[in-house]
Specification:
The protein is an alpha+beta fold. It has a single domain, classed as HIT family, subunit A. It is built from four helices and five strands; from the N terminus they run H-E-E-E-H-E-E-H-H. It has a five-stranded antiparallel beta sheet. Helix 2 crosses helix 4. The radius of gyration is 15 Å and the shape is globular. The structure holds zinc ion. Zinc ion binds next to loops.
């Protein structure tokens, strides 16, 4: 049987980024993007990061700016902003990377497999018909960063465009 959904692995790889000081979902500074942090987008309510240890190419992480551990701790406007951003980010990934499908989800609580359990976040993982695990295909983790920045450079312009439209 071919298993396409493996959220525990998504969290496993993401967990390796935890060594960075402070909360991953509260990137330092105030600028709307930062390649060093793989920050693609920030507005007053939401943050979008490229996962430093992706499950597939284009694996992004989306979080509320507010440090809460569950979606039920957000007010209605914050929930609406988060879900709206999930949709916008999915559309950007579709247009830029042309995947055949997506895994979109959130692990809430350590018991559910959350790598960073105290700040709510969603994974958006693009999937291709023939995508044997991206990490396996590339083999070595050390070959990832260059690929990551290439993906970052492709994804940044549409996120900047989105921010410009929203600031209008
Ligand atoms: Zn946080």
């Amino acid at each position: 049987m071919k298993t396409l959904m493996a959220p525990w692995r998504m969290e496993h790889v993401e967990g390796r980024a935890e060594k960075v000081s402070g909360c991953l979902f509260e990137p330092e500074g105030t600028e709307p993007f930062n390649p060093d942090l793989l920050l693609l987008y920030r507005d007053p309510k939401t943050v979008v990061l490229l996962n430093r240890f992706p499950y597939t190419n284009g694996h992004i992480l989306l979080a509320p700016v507010k440090h809460v551990d569950c979606i039920t701790s957000l007010n209605q406007a914050e929930q609406t902003a988060l879900i709206g951003m999930l949709s916008e980010a999915t559309q950007i990934l579709r247009e830029i990377l042309h995947p055949d499908g997506f895994n979109i989800g959130s692990n809430i609580g350590k018991v559910a497999g959350a790598g960073i359990a105290d700040h709510l976040h969603f994974h958006i993982v693009p999937r291709w018909e023939d995508d044997h695990n991206f990490m396996t295909v590339l083999g070595e983790v050390r070959s990832i960063p260059e690929h990551l920045l290439t993906t970052y450079d492709k994804l940044l312009p549409p996120f900047q465009q989105l921010l410009a439209i929203r600031n209008r």
